[in-house]
Amino acid sequence: MSFLGLGRPQPTSAEKIAAVENELKVVAEMHSRMIKVCTAKCIDRSYREADLAKGEAVCLDRCAAKFFDVHQTISEQLQREGAARGFGA
């Protein structure tokens, strides 16, 4: 069976589930890396105060925003490359 007559078969339910599971894995890994990197960069290890200092909070916000921007840019580029090679729907 082709998808819109383009000669490519439609993905099966199992393939769709696998794609969603893979995307969740990628997002979870990105989140873990972001937490590790941003915490190491932004949080003062002396723990002088129970709450985040304003500078630490701002640093964490900026670090997280950069991670999401880079992740989005890379994802878009990979999708374009995949589409150019005939992958994806």
From TrEMBL:
Residues 18-79 form the Tim10-like domain. Pfam families: zf-Tim10_DDP (PF02953). InterPro entries: Tim10-like (IPR004217), Tim10-like_dom_sf (IPR035427). The keyword Membrane applies. It is found in: Mitochondrion inner membrane. Belongs to the small Tim family. Heterohexamer. This is Mitochondrial import inner membrane translocase subunit.
